[in-house]
Backbone:
């Protein structure tokens, strides 16, 4: 385990913290739309959906509990990956999604999410928003979510395997677990499992200007 470097404050800390806050808000908002259109979710959220189909928990609470379990693994393996972004991601994204969906249920017509054409139209911007939020919090460099951190930890211990393959394998494991548990598996789940990493890498290069 590295020396305790968690919650470090690197250069341009204020800019980085703003990126974390905006990234988490944006990602939670995007996730709420992805869940509503029901074409599948990211692998971690699909697993969370599977969990709440068996236990009486909200999506946000179940995701927090799953992240706490993963956080314990990260804490004992590499505290250098823990920071303000870690806590913001693991605690707030699920609850932001829950809150947004509650607002939709009170303000939007129920049939909005039943029309296939409308769902497809909503899906594309929802994915763009979700991925942008993920890229913002990752680019900030103030810690990694417990789910994302596991892939980095494994990569450090399996140096001969490219990170993208480790990340894809990790996502596929949760995809399968989500499917077994009864989560919403669809085209979005597979797209995120196979393509999220490269897209975020590209966006990070664009966003890094705000902290360079």
Residues:
């Amino acid at each position: 385990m590295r020396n305790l470097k968690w919650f470090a404050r690197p250069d341009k800390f204020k800019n980085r913290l703003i990126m974390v806050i905006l990234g988490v808000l944006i990602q939670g908002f995007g996730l709420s739309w992805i869940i509503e259109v029901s074409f599948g979710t990211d692998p971690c959220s699909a697993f969370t959906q599977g969990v709440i189909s068996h236990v009486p928990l909200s999506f946000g609470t179940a995701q927090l509990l799953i992240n706490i379990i993963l956080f314990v693994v990260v804490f004992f393996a590499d505290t250098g990956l823990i920071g303000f972004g870690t806590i913001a991601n693991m605690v707030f994204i699920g609850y932001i999604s829950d809150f947004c969906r509650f607002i939709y249920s009170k303000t939007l017509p129920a049939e909005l999410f039943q029309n296939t054409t409308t769902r497809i139209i909503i899906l594309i911007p929802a994915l763009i928003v979700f991925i942008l939020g993920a890229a913002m919090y990752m680019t900030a460099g103030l810690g990694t979510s417990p789910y994302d951190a596991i892939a980095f930890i494994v990569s450090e211990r399996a140096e001969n395997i490219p990170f993208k393959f480790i990340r894809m394998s990790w996502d596929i494991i949760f995809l399968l677990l989500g499917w077994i548990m009864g989560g919403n598996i669809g085209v979005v789940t597979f797209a995120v499992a196979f393509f999220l990493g490269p897209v975020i890498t590209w966006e990070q290069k664009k966003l890094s200007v705000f902290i360079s």
